[in-house]
Design brief:
The structure holds 2 protein chains of 2 kinds. By secondary structure, chain A is α/β, with parallel strands linked by helices. In chain A, 36% of the residues lie in helices and 14% in strands. Chain B is of the alpha/beta class. Chain B has 14 helices and 13 strands. In chain B, strands 3-2-1-4-5-6-7 form a 7-stranded parallel β-sheet, with helices on both faces. A 6-stranded parallel β-sheet of chain B has the order 10-9-8-11-12-13, sandwiched between helices. In chain B, helix 3 runs antiparallel to helix 12. The longest helix of chain B is centred in the C-terminal third of the chain and has 17 residues. The chains are: A alpha/beta, B alpha/beta.
């Protein structure tokens, strides 16, 4: 079964867009770097959408799922990526990762780590590794965490809980040069008179002082290059309704099954 | 990494409990070598569960030991830091501790205040403390790590809607004789309520007073954490009218168990309390207003349920001890990896000099003649402040000025 939090082609388009925007924010840093390492790369769906075709540096995709990495390698074939299967929550695996990044060709690399920390039971060893890579090897880290504290949703896949206060805690364990960006949700609608698909441009006034859905942090020498960006995706409300009804029906079915003792 | 936590003594107190929670997890989950150095108490053998696998030693027995980081955890222990052989000094500050002392306890107040002003790295649990420390020491490394909650004991509990036919179940927590805990005010407020209520007081005192017994429906002392969790689960509201806190844990524990809180806007409340969302804030010294707020919750059970419902959501987003200690470990790693302080020996001497200056008995600083003059001066001052002396004050001031000339 596919890990429900993993971004795949079947993921809700809005969530996929959010992930693409995070990779997009890292692109200005990435194009100045000799190498790129993506921690928690998954199937590479979002990365393949936004990353430049002409990036010539070394690429390493890291994930705990071999299947996902195989898919990511296929999608990002144009970057000739290497892969590494490790569980980032175990110190032993982090040693493997550290060794893999030991060569001088990884000095000054960009390391992306989106939506990973909340899945780690203990994030301190990974944070320490990232801090050392930034402080001692000139790497720039771009990472993100969700604003669980605001949504208050109980997510069984999130082993630690993140929000504005947790980001402030994290910021203070890093150097003062951390750049923090807020990812803000948008809603929209469009009136269309033609039957032809077309690209529309929509303007939105975005104010910074509303609750973000995610926090993006960047630290290391090129952190100030962290980009901005926004986007809209069309909502297929029929598909969404089908998916939600399917989930609700399945939930009721299994709850009923559980009440009857699993028979 | 070798870490030493300095504690005055090991006792059942919130601040000590926090230190031991971190110490235990730094050993178990992060592979740190942790020792507890007891600076005041001679007895270093304790049965606290969190001490398994941790060395406890008296300050006099540390001469042959060295540590990477020594962490003072209460103002008194800052003055013991120079006695510990260590690469880095750190303070774990859980409150601005001079606030615990009333103005007449001047020496303790000054010693506690001075301890916060030394230029050594700090880790603190609340942003109001971080802001004040930053103002005092803008160039000193400062880390912010919120205390965790034991999610196994205070496991999330969704509140069930209640009917106004049953009394509002209120818990008051705190030591009645500690001036800043506000327990007498809380009892006064519940006794001014018009609606039906059931009040339980939880206190650390083993023999609660008869007066306390008459004001509350139930008095519990020295509850275990599991017992406290069960009590909160059966209750609707935690009433806490403290005047000084670092970051009070009990309202947050109440949130986990599906109770809301009525509390003063005491320092640290802003870490989790939002008026009208997950709790009700009431003014300091406003006992009638607090009573009316409790009456409102007793009458309006939809509002009560809304606050309790959101309290659980707030609790869900609060870190566990495991997450909190991960952040604590990250802060220690950062401190250890930074270059050593440039003036370590000067800082050590500053701590020793301040200790010597503020520890000197007061009578030695004044001659017998000066002491007598001081007492006469204090007597005259107290007489001149008497209300009956008010009409004579302008003339007295004039005479005093002429005499001083």
């Amino acid at each position: 079964m596919t890990f429900i939090e993993r971004i795949t082609e079947a993921t809700n388009p809005f969530i996929k867009l959010e992930h693409e925007l995070r990779y997009g924010a890292a692109v200005p840093i990435l194009i100045e770097s000799p190498a790129w390492c993506d921690l928690g790369a998954g199937e590479g769906v979002a990365a393949a959408t936004v990353l430049p075709l002409d990036f010539s540096g070394r690429v390493l995709l890291v994930d705990r799922s071999e299947d996902a990495l195989r898919e990511a390698q296929r999608r990002l074939e144009y970057l000739s990526p290497d892969t590494l299967v490790v569980d980032l929550s175990t110190p032993g695996s982090l040693t493997v990762l550290r060794d893999r990044l030991a060569g001088a060709e990884w000095d000054g690399a960009t390391i992306t780590c989106f939506e990973v920390f909340e899945h780690l039971d203990d994030f301190e060893p990974l944070l320490e590794l990232l801090r050392i890579l930034a402080d001692e090897r000139g790497c720039t880290v771009v990472m993100s965490v969700p604003n669980d504290a605001f949504t208050g949703v109980e997510n069984p896949h999130h082993l630690t809980v993140w929000g504005e206060a947790a980001v402030e805690e994290l910021r203070r364990t890093l150097d003062g040069s951390v750049v923090i960006a807020h990812q803000l949700p948008l809603q929209g609608s469009q009136i269309l008179r033609t039957d032809e698909p077309r690209i529309v441009s929509v303007e939105a006034r975005v104010v910074p002082d509303i609750e973000p859905s995610h926090f993006i942090l960047s630290f290391g020498p090129r952190a100030p290059l962290l980009g901005e960006g926004g986007g809209l995706v069309q909502t297929d409300i029929a598909a969404q309704r089908a998916w939600e009804r399917q989930r609700e029906a399945a939930l009721e079915y299994y709850q009923g099954l559980a009440q009857r003792g699993g028979k | 990494m070798r870490i030493a936590f300095l504690l005055p003594k090991i006792q059942l107190a919130g601040g000590v409990y926090v230190v031991l929670e971190h110490a235990k997890r730094l050993v178990d989950r992060h592979g740190f070598d942790v020792a507890i150095i007891v600076t005041r108490d001679r007895d270093v053998q304790h049965r606290h569960g969190n001490l398994d696998g941790i060395r406890c030693i008296g300050i006099d027995d540390t001469a042959s030991m060295s540590f990477d980081i020594a962490i003072a955890t209460w103002w008194e222990t800052v003055y013991s830091l120079p006695r510990v052989e260590t690469g880095r000094h750190v303070q774990f500050i859980q409150s601005m501790e001079d606030r615990f002392y009333p103005p007449e306890e001047l020496v303790s107040r000054r010693r506690a205040g001075a301890a916060q002003s030394f230029p050594i790295s700090s880790i603190t649990e609340a942003r109001w403390i971080a802001d004040q420390l930053h103002t005092l020491q803008p160039h000193t490394p400062l880390f912010y790590v919120r205390n965790g909650v034991d999610k196994e004991v205070f496991s999330l509990h969704a509140p069930a809607p209640t009917s106004s036919r049953e009394p509002l179940r209120i818990v008051i927590e705190g030591a009645p004789d500690v001036w800043f805990k506000g327990v007498p005010d809380a009892l006064a407020a519940t006794n001014q309520m018009r609606e039906r209520r059931h009040v339980t007081v939880v206190t650390g005192v083993s023999l609660p007073s008869d007066h306390l017994q008459t004001l509350a429906d139930r008095v519990e002392s020295r509850l275990t954490q599991h017992e406290m969790a069960q009590l909160l689960r059966e209750s609707h509201v935690l009433l806490k009218l403290s005047r000084v806190e670092g970051m009070a844990g009990p309202p947050l524990e109440a949130f986990h168990m599906g109770a809301t809180a009525v509390l003063t806007p005491v320092t640290g409340h802003d870490e989790y309390a939002v008026h009208g969302w997950n709790c009700q804030l009431v003014g300091f010294d406003d006992i009638p207003g607090t009573a009316r707020t409790l009456d409102l919750l007793a009458r309006d059970r939809r509002l009560l349920h809304y606050l309790r419902f959101n309290a659980v959501a707030t609790a869900r987003a609060w870190p566990s001890w495991a997450q909190s200690t991960s952040m604590f470990a990250a802060a220690l790693q950062k401190i250890a990896s930074a270059p050593p302080p440039a003036h370590a020996e000067s800082i050590r001497q500053l701590i020793l000099d301040t200790h010597a200056m503020l520890s000197a008995p007061r009578e030695r600083s004044l001659s017998p003649g000066e002491e007598q003059s001081l007492q006469i001066g204090q007597k005259i001052r107290s007489i001149s402040r008497h209300p009956l002396m008010a009409p004579l004050r302008p003339a007295a001031r004039l005479i005093a000025r002429r005499l001083l000339r």
